[in-house]
TrEMBL record:
InterPro entries: Cell_wall/Cho-bd_repeat, Cell_Wall_Dynamics_Protein, Lysozyme-like_dom_sf. Keywords: Repeat. Pfam families: Choline_bind_1, Choline_bind_3. The keyword Repeat applies. Signal peptide: none annotated. Gene3D superfamilies: 1.10.530.10, Cholin Binding. Cell wall-binding repeats lie at residues 158-177, 178-197. It comes from Lachnoanaerobaculum saburreum. The keyword Phosphoprotein does not apply. This is Cell wall-binding repeat protein.
């Protein structure tokens, strides 16, 4: 971002309100002053750089010769410059629309202060350079507010939209450059810290840490699915990227992972499938079936053997969907007392949270596969990105992640899905050992697996 005070080599500042007109057709001021201002033959000035360069001392001769000498000195870097390359001054390298513009405090008395690369509106004709005073066009910083403003070609403070160097900026009615979120004509935009409008990119809100997507027009995308880098993401009503759960888009259902990536849910299991293997119709809802298929799709429980083993184990662990929280024995006044023997078990020790009293009850079995122990809750919380899983324990998991905890436990924690794919004839006893840690209710598990094989076909 250019400033009125340009800091250049050797720590010298150039303060300038003068610039150089190129050619004879660059403005009314130049036309009116054409006979009063000196002209410099740039081709001869370039030739001068090929010989000995005078020192920085006073140069004798006419005003035109003096200017030629200063230009030659700048070309070889004798005078501090913003653009110090002598090649930049070689007329042979000039192209239409690309010209070196000289900034000067006083070209007539004080000499040339520096060089700035800019663009000429008129066709470049290096034969003549006409010197004249014009208003400064560019960025200025308000000393009182510290905010950036932009002076346009009329010498006025810019307001509203302005495209500068192929980037869009917005200035309020006081001319201050916008940054951060801003509503303009009923549409939401985001402007980066340097003021340029965000477009076709993700922006993370500093306070909420949520992610938002700005379209190519700069408008905030809301209530829609977008595809970036080959992945699908869904943006809610407020524009925030949805993380976790299920969404509907264009009559199709999708699961959403913690990183926001969406995947189309496969219709693997139906309500009839569950009823056929012994589930009560009362515990089966459309939303429950959606979440079951969502978990099975996300965790790739799609192989027919994996499906049958998974449903058989979940059916036993949850009492065919009727028990989503591990029960405690009769005769005990509270679950805390019943599960107290687990309180200080090694499996309730996790990083930053050692086992303590009542951990046994807080992290008892929850969900369709009965996720148990603080260590497993901790790992699941980290995977999902939801600290309340660890903070609130069993009730939170049973309500919010009953199927997802089962899918994660099956495929991510215990890798049972992989084991079944590698060993298609794996026994129910071996799967039960991995899930249960023993052979509890093994007859019931084998019975349900057999029923799953009969009722659930490829």
């Amino acid at each position: 971002m250019s400033k009125t005070s340009l800091k250049i080599k050797r720590n010298i500042d150039i303060h300038s309100k003068r610039t150089v007109f190129i050619g004879n057709e660059t403005g009314e001021y130049a036309k009116s002053q054409i006979n009063k201002l000196p002209k410099v033959d740039m081709r001869r000035a370039w030739q001068a750089t090929l010989g000995a360069i005078p020192s920085m001392g006073a140069v004798k001769g006419t005003e035109t010769e003096t200017i030629k000498t200063y230009i030659a000195q700048i070309a070889l870097g004798s005078i501090p410059t913003v653009v110090g390359s002598s090649e930049a001054f070689n007329p042979a390298n000039w192209k239409n629309g690309d010209v070196n513009t000289l900034f000067a405090d006083s070209l007539y008395g004080g000499g040339i202060s520096g060089v700035h690369t800019g663009a000429a509106q008129a066709e470049v004709e290096p034969k003549n350079i006409v010197l004249g005073a014009v208003s400064y066009v560019g960025w200025v910083k308000d000393k009182n507010t510290g905010k950036w403003k932009y002076l346009n070609q009329d010498g006025e403070v810019q307001t509203g939209w302005k495209q500068i160097d192929d980037k869009w900026y917005y200035f309020d009615n006081k001319g201050c450059m916008s940054t951060g979120w801003r509503s303009i004509d009923g549409k939401i935009y985001y402007f980066q810290s340097k003021g340029n409008m965000a477009g076709s990119e993700w922006v993370q809100d500093k306070k909420s840490k949520k992610w938002y997507y700005l379209r190519s027009s700069g408008e905030l995308a809301v209530s829609q699915m977008i595809v970036t880098n080959g992945n699908s993401y869904y943006l809610g009503k407020d524009g925030a990227m949805v993380t976790r759960g299920e969404i509907e888009w264009e009559r199709k259902s999708y699961y959403v992972k913690s990183d926001g990536i969406c995947g189309k849910i496969k219709n693997i299991i139906t309500k009839k499938n569950l009823i056929d293997i012994g589930w009560s119709e009362e515990v089966i809802t459309d939303n429950m079936i959606l979440k079951l298929n969502s978990a099975m799709t996300e965790y790739d429980i799609t192989n027919i053997n994996s499906i049958r083993h998974f449903l058989a184990q979940c059916s036993v662990e949850s009492g065919c969907g009727e028990i989503l929280v591990e029960k405690y024995g009769k005769g005990y006044p509270s679950p805390e007392e019943y599960f107290s023997s687990r309180d200080f078990d090694e499996l309730n020790n996790v990083h930053g949270s050692p086992a303590e009293k009542n951990d046994g009850a807080k992290y008892r079995g929850a969900g369709y596969i009965q996720l148990t122990w603080k260590e497993n809750y901790y790992r699941f919380a980290k995977y999902i990105g939801d600290d309340d899983i660890l903070n609130k324990g069993y009730s939170y998991v049973a309500i919010n992640y009953p199927w997802e905890s089962a899918g994660w436990y099956w495929s991510e924690l215990k890798k049972i899905n992989t084991k079944i794919k590698e060993e298609p004839d794996i026994s129910v006893k071996r799967v039960t050992k991995i899930v249960n840690g023993g052979q509890t209710d093994i007859e019931r598990r084998e019975e349900l697996y057999k029923k799953c094989c009969e009722k659930i076909k490829e």
